## 1
Amino acid sequence: MARKYKVTNSPIHGRGVFAAQPLKKGEKVIDYTGRLRTHAQSDRLYGDSLDSGHTFLFTLNERYVIDANVGGNDARWINHSCAPNCEALLEEDESGDKRRDKVEIWTRRAIRPGTELTYDYGITLEVPHTARLKKLWACLCGASDCTGTLLRPKKRTART
């Protein structure tokens, strides 16, 4: 069976993943894999990821992170877009074992060969989104409604 995708240089950022054949809406493309680490282990290894713009870490659940720097597959090269054609979905382990949860990348719509595969990274930071952080986490997706940053907008709270 032919591969669904290929990895090559991306106009968005560095490397990217591109459809190698037509993909249907609702089709699984790939699992996001890598070394399973606790949040604390990840923080010790990579320091404050706020200042790194590090995107090979994928939050799996409240306990674990997938570190695609170690044992990661081609999913780590899928770039962010403000108008994504794929989505990252969490598949929770039926037995409740958080170590066995996984992340799968699925298409949101039909995709033609040669199209770059993207999803919304949905990066949420609890600190204020300063100009420096927005620049560090800049988005280069080129979508007509690009927000200019990979950071999710903060939710506004009602004033009383």
## 2
Amino acid sequence: MNRPSVDWVEVGPRDGLQSWPTTLPTPAKVGLITGLLECGFRRVEATSMVHPKWVPQLADAEAVLEALPDRIANLRVLVPNRRGLERAQQAGVRNVAVTVAATDGYNQHNLNRSVDQTLDEITELVGVARRDGIVVDASVSVAFGCPYEGQVSAEQVARVARALADAGIQEIALADTIGIANPAQVERVFESMKDVLPAVRWGAHFHDTRGAAMANLLSALETGVSLFEGSVGGIGGSPFAPGAAGNLCSEDAIAMLESMGIETGVDVTRLLEVARGLERTLGAPLPGKLHAVEQTQARSLPA
């Protein structure tokens, strides 16, 4: 009998590093991505084709991708607009991600345009990508609450998600960008989305601002969601979302899922080594718990 399974998209190299106060050298980014792929991740979000003026930490996007020609099939790149897609095409990328907020308030701060303007641009972008055989995934930001507009209704999320699905996008992740969601809300929103758009493959992207990311993952899992995003060490957070803490920690969540009998395809032991290596490289403690706890326990064991 096959074990239940989930797919995990590791977003640390993009979503994790984009808000880190210092910029990691290109070889260190390449080493991080390589290490994550060797853990068994089938998809790693490697970088973003955003203008360096807005996210200087990812200004070396082309250089990172150029150093990984044999792994390009397992890499995903965030593209904020048509120009970003063109850069991704030139780099040989076969999977891109687009993002749009559930509210105009956040969308204006993040993308400098309205939700409807972004949806129109995404529709055009999907058409171009499809002609080149590029798969486009989407994320709906602030799907559970907005730092500028407050509460977000399921109807708002559904309107945006329906437009993405009509554009031809088959995989849509709902993002708790500021980490404000609770398990009951997560269950309610995902159940509603599945009723409205049953053909979509739904994913979840949680932040741990209030310490509820793991509980929210379990709630999404109960609704049948089997696609999750997280970052090694729990690093990250949107630079355009005031007060947002790090992402759901990949190794913490994956270790829990594996202990529950849920297959992830990821070698947790190797992932812990990658997290510890990243902590040394960044020179600061990372938010994740498991890599730190296991090191402490190992030091306390008798010789």
## 3
Amino acid sequence: MSGPEHEFLLPDLRFVAVERLVPHERHDDRRMTPLVQRIREQAMLKNPPIAAPLPGPRAEQRFVVLDGANRVAAARAAGLPHLVVQVVRYEPPHVELRTWYHALAEGSRGQFEMAAGRIPGLRCRDEEALHARALLARREVLATVSFRDGGVLTFAGGRDLAERNNLLNALVDVYRDRRFYRLSTDSLDAATARYPEVTALVVFPHFEPAEILELATRGEHMPAGITRHLIRWRALRINIALDQLADDGHALEEKNRWLNEWLREKLAMREVRFYEESTVLFDE
């Protein structure tokens, strides 16, 4: 198949002030600390975060971070004034928003139910698996949790997007300091086949980009590891030297001129490659 929507587009890479990057999800402290150390040891930015412009004056342009919250938090913690990001249009076919599910490897149903029961405003009910799936599809519940004994719990509450997001954060807080895996399947059988130690699977609903943008503009954060953004023509291994990111003596315009020249040189030297097929990396 051919056509403009299928043609290779060079990633839109830009230097952006770190203070202009707005996360839409919480960062993970356990992942951020090693990232800060890795950035300093490697002295380079390997893979740029993905960001989309937020509405507002161009002179005060802000960007919502769709992927790379930990890298942005690490850059902020490292005191970097600027960061190279890949700017995308937050719409198909440029970006597809999907959902990660959380497979829990620690804790019993009783422990989970007791901890969740202490969250004010969160309603918990036992449901049959099929009905629970239907409730989630209609967005009548915030999440479902399937257990190996066949039981399914549903969690509901909140009068608006902000309240529901706060309850969702509180629910994820029940287990976020324990071991869990992010999966793209909502099947507990598939989760346990991959990870035999899994005891439960937390399934979230599908979210819309408008919800992500609304929360971000309000300064509110979703739980880490739920939104999954698929990016067409994602830039990887740009390997920008830390000196370029840390240098606060040059204006953004000057840095971006350097970045454009860097990209032209990469193209001229035939060092840019793109893959249309799905890829699996083993050095991340």
## 4
Amino acid sequence: MIQETFKKRDMPRITAIIAGFFGSCADDKEYSLEIKEKKKKRSLDSNSYAWLLLDKLAAKTGIPKTDIYRSYIREIGGNSAILCIQNKALDDFCRLWEVGHIGRFTETMPSKLPDCTNVIVYYGSSDYDQPTMCRLVEMIVQECHEQGIETLTPAEIAAMNAAWGGDSDAES
């Protein structure tokens, strides 16, 4: 495996590395090449900051942080869809939607169609685009201020949100 960091001006060096790699390739094997823009790692992103604040809110209010998180998800807007699911598939669908995601959950309501149920599916923060994630952080920060919990400054939060790219190792 070859992993190289380069800039456009390094093209002769990178071309030589790739040519050398091709010389060592077996004729009967397939290989994959991926070139992507290198992005700086962040030590603190919007999602992990949201969870840090949720933890502080939970400690202050006695409400579990996952309950606080889900209440924001329900209220944030632009992060849900309504699906009509056949009753025979309802339990499996809801279970599979939620598995492995704290923020993904479902709510059901009756459907006018026979043998069907309307399901509201909510997306968690790991699915959010930048504007939705910014709204979530803003809601959490506002609640922290109301509870007397210190947060980053507005400028620090804006910089963090601007750098957020949607890939997080934090809970979601």
